[in-house]
Design brief:
With 116 residues, the chain is mainly α. It folds into 2 domains: 3-68, 434 Repressor (Amino-terminal Domain), CATH 1.10.260.40; 77-115. Helix content is 77%, strand content 0%. The chain has helices at 3-14, 19-26, 30-39, 45-54, 59-64, 67-74, 78-88, 92-115. Helix 1 crosses helix 3 and helix 2 packs across helix 3 (30-39). The mean pLDDT is 88.
């Protein structure tokens, strides 16, 4: 089951809806909901919007999950993710300093690449 399918299934269950009921409200067939939840089939945008509305979430949440899930899906280094979370808790001046240091290292890396 893909993440989108898992989120649809979990939210549907939280709402106390069966697959049949969700399909009826959204205006699609029951087998189609099954495909979305278990087979990794991606709904078209209009259907995705109706599913999101019915489940009281945004399309972005259905597709990407919450911000933590988004970060985990895009940032594979878990230690780095923990460090970024710690930085988020720091005061604004410390955050600016850390961002400046990161920018400096990125620039240094780009310059190294150009020198090769």
């Amino acid at each position: 089951m893909n993440d989108l399918g898992k989120r649809i299934q979990e939210l549907r269950k939280e709402k106390g809806l069966t697959q049949q009921e969700l399909a009826k409200v959204v205006g699609i067939s029951h087998p189609q909901i099954v495909r979305y939840e278990t087979k990794g089939v991606q709904p078209p945008a209009d259907v995705l919007g109706r599913i999101a509305d019915t489940l009281d979430v945004s399309v972005d949440f259905l597709v990407n999950g919450n911000s933590t899930e988004k970060a985990q899906n895009t940032l594979k280094d878990t230690e780095l993710l923990k460090q970024f979370k710690a930085v988020e808790k720091m005061d604004e001046n410390d955050q600016k300093t850390i961002k400046s240091l990161i920018d400096a290292f990125i620039t240094k890396g780009k310059l190294k690449q150009l020198a090769l």
